[in-house]
Amino acid sequence: xxxxxxxxxxxxxAPVGTSASAPAGTSAGADASPPAPARRDAEATKxxxxxxxxxxxxxxxxxxITLKAVAERAGVSxxxxxxxxxxxxxxxxxxxxxxxxxxxxxxxxxxALGRHMVRHVLDSQRERGADPVLRIVFAPLHGAHGDVLxxxxxxxxxxxxxxxxxxxxxxxxAELAVGALLGLGVMYGIAHGAxxxxxxxxxxxxxxxxxxxxxxxxxxx
Length: 221
Known about the structure:
By secondary structure, the chain is mostly helical. Helices cover 62% and strands 0% of the residues. The protein starts with 27 loop residues before the first helix and ends in a 5-residue tail after the last helix. 33% of the residues are buried.
């Protein structure tokens, strides 16, 4: 689950991988090219670790999750997690932040934001098996860490959305809009609603987006 006392920054050290010495006659320019694949591999590895941490955060209490389990699911070694993220707490601080997810979720003009948010939730669920905001529903599992998760969610998702809304009750309308997205995510990703899963994304967007958009840009009386 991506939280404010926004969690402290994560220390990410340089990517793994040492470059072999260049053969005789190799130019300096050729010497400089090998690190690019290593950087790409490092980013993919970090992403796999974060996905594994999110998986466990949605299923177990924070105290019960081990780096060994995260490493096994990500297909890496526990020391590599420590190399990239520093500590277990630093890793989960990163996972408890919604900042990057909120940036993607809210990346549309206000008059088209309802459609964008609904589509983004559905595409995330279908294509990546993840949801940008659904991990907030697991906050009760995590004790004090759940409080961090809630604080991050308020600051990074609902309050950030409310800042974009004009008119009265912006905070309430932001929470109602996000609540509608959470309901959609629960029905799709947790309840595995059969009818939802059989329906085309375009059809779901047409049906559900107006419900969300009504809170973002309500019709004036």
